[in-house]
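Hey,

The postdoc asked me to send both predictions to you directly instead of through the lab channel. I've kept everything plain text so nothing gets mangled by the mail client. Protein one:
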Amino acid sequence: MLNGVDLPARRALAEQIREDSWEAQLSIGVQAHPEPGARCRVDTEPMRLGSTRVARSFSVHQSRGTGAADASPSCLDPVGSLLVALGASVADSVAASLTGEGCHLTLLKVLPVVETGGDGGRSRLSYALHIEGEVSPEEARRAALAARERSSGHRTLEEPNEIRVVVQTARDEHLTARPVPADPAPFTGALRRAAEVAWEVGAHVIAEVDGVRVESDQPKQLFGADLAPNAQEYVLSALAAEALRFAAPADADGATGAAGVASGASAGAGDGGPAAADAVHASGRIDLRGPYSAQDAQVGLRNILVQLLPADPSAGDGSAAAAMRGWLTEGHALRLVRDAHPIHVELVLNGTPIAR
């Protein structure tokens, strides 16, 4: 297979989902659990591809902070996870497009960047797309356009998303994070975060953010080697980890902070057993007719739902819902997914920038 991309299988899937829209629906979920310090473990759950169950058994270890200063030297933070998701998804789309053109790739790198304004509220996204190999400028331009139109990571972060939140207590609280219109004032970046996402083969990439190296890949049902979480799982991991930071903050020694205790995070400690802890579940859906066929269907992650699962769901003091309202106001990763962010793309072919 050229570039490790199975074009006949991709075309067969495109034909199948054109005929049966139910088989195009991919449901994805993850669940975040606190770990000592300001860290958490996010476990992927089995996907549902139409009527098919797709096993997924990966764990993403994350800092619950939202910036490079908060990140652990051994794991991503939520914003870093979003940069990985963007780069991995774009690389997958570009590799498939160039393979369809019959191009042999020797190098493909995506360099995603997020800049945050001085007010901490607004952000700007971009990426540089570096392509090397037997590729013409026109083929490179078409690949960049394919990524803009058919990359689920690009479209998820470029388009607005309504995010629903449920706090599962004795009386469930339902909250909604609605997109905020763009501020027309000039943007001045104060903080810059960058990642490097290097394509290996097929849908497999190796990414580095702030010195942390991680992998991303698709399941075999989506033409990957099933080596690591995919881009959408990294998006959901970012949201789950950041929400958990607000629901169950931890101090430097790993003790659960006041919000976690109030919502029952210390339950069970009195009898000598391990302390119970809050968890956060995040899920979403993709219509594969968007990224995998030419049909007019949404491409990005949709129906995003974040559920706070308090350790003591009978607690009725309102602290869990208050913590989630704080996340909806202050969460950086949440704002990146919720609000529209026009993404600037720079294209470099065989070391030479080319106009798109």
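Protein two:
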Amino acid sequence: MIREELPTLRYYNRKKKRGLIMSTYIHFTKEQREQARQTDLASFLVSQGEKIKRSGSEYEWLDGTQKVTIRGNLWFHQYEQKGGDAIDFIRKFYNKNYAESVEFLLGNSCGCLIYSSPVVKEKKPFELPKANDNMRRMLAYLLVTRGIDKDVLYEFIRHKMIYESEKYHNAVFVGYDNKGKARHAHKRGTVTLNPYKGNVSSSVPEFSFYWNGTSNKIYLFEAPIDMLSFISLHKENWRAHTYAASCSVSDRVLFQCLNDNPNLSKVYLCLDNDDAGQKANSRIAEKLNQMNIQNEVLVPTHKDWNEDLLQSEESEVKCQQVLSP
């Protein structure tokens, strides 16, 4: 009987010791690599003392303040719009190279692990949440709590781009493709104590929430509320310009808009004033520079454009109080 051996790969690992670079070879069989790749990430994170939260059939873990969705051995960073398997997870979040990541997952550094079966995720057809028979909660949230300009908000409502869902009374921000078909929907909770936000299943990120103008300018934001806040702050002739909210720090909706509208030649990157937002601004600006597309970064004074809007309204109220007899 001939026994078939699994192929092995040799990985070159460098470690620094007493000022010298020490080189070692690490051998991993195909089976070992697959075992490491199939590590159940939820169990792994719990074993590392990390906090995770169950969300339906998945788990959520926070990378700082950014949500990472976990299912079996797979993960997806909601803001960066990137994901991978267990080995990719260790490489990204534990700052290890491939060999170190495999070694780490196999138990040399973290003990016995649970392995997950390959995840087969059924893709649901995209479907907009059922609309509520009125929009009172959504209007109160966006107009009062978020300070969005009434005329701006009603223009989007008139174009069927914003409505209130029947279930949970979320504000729903709808994105359409260039044929007018709804392809994306972002949900935002209207209860202040429960700031839920998320995209409807099977939303296409290339067609997230955006306004199509006629000028050569496009403004890119992270969230629909940031986009509406910026417009509220800069209302003059706003309908003429194009605005897009990626509902993340992805650039996919931006490049879809540029592809669909050749008239666009000036990009304004308006992502949040935090580490994730500014890193994304730099990353996208580099892409645009390589494509010789004119671009400029606009940074909010506070964390995001909604905070700027609310602070400006608060300043106006204080000014009126001082000037009133």
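Summary for protein two, as requested: The two ends are 101 Å apart (CA to CA).

Thanks,
C.
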